[in-house]
Write a structure and sequence with these properties.
With 151 residues, the protein is an alpha/beta fold. It contains six helices and nine strands, in the order H-E-H-E-E-E-E-E-H-H-E-H-E-E-H. A hairpin with a 5-residue loop joins strand 2 and strand 3.
């Protein structure tokens, strides 16, 4: 079995010059946690995941708790204000790049191994340089559904 057998296709994408706000709306609208990022020629240039938005809790001595949101320090009471300010940033500023990819004929075992080695949850699938799908950790559930049951 290969990547093409378990990948999700078609893929919801965004562009590098889109705003974070637009990308966030796309993610919510389509119920996805990632968006492959394409340039103006339709070539894959990166990937945007919910973790790239960078909302993390930071514990600092004597400071209680603070958050970072896309690199900006945030107090809990100013979270909404900072979120609104960073929503106008471009996707290219926060995406992971270059995107790690696999070819559509990559064996599923190699896909899984790469995801584990790189500690990533999603891999864009390409045919040559063209994006044709994406494999997420969730897609591995398909392996269970495809396996013949044993009596």
């Amino acid at each position: 079995m290969n990547a093409q057998d378990i990948m999700t296709s078609p893929v919801v994408t965004t562009t590098a010059d889109s705003t974070v706000e637009t990308a966030a709306k796309l993610m919510l609208e389509h119920g996805t946690s990632c968006l492959p990022v394409l340039d103006n020629k339709g070539q894959l240039v990166g990937i945007l995941t919910h973790t790239d938005f960078g909302f993390h809790r930071k514990f600092l001595p004597m400071a209680g708790h603070l958050y970072t949101l896309m690199g900006s320090w945030v107090k809990p009471e100013t979270l909404e204000e900072v979120a609104k300010a960073v929503s106008s940033r471009s996707v290219s500023e926060v995406m992971s790049h270059p995107a790690i990819t696999v070819q559509e004929d990559t064996p599923v075992a190699e896909v899984a191994d790469l995801m584990i080695q790189k500690n990533i949850s999603r891999l864009p699938v390409v045919r040559g340089k063209a994006l044709v799908g994406i494999v997420t950790r969730h897609d591995f559930v398909k392996l269970m559904a495809m396996s013949p049951t044993q009596d």
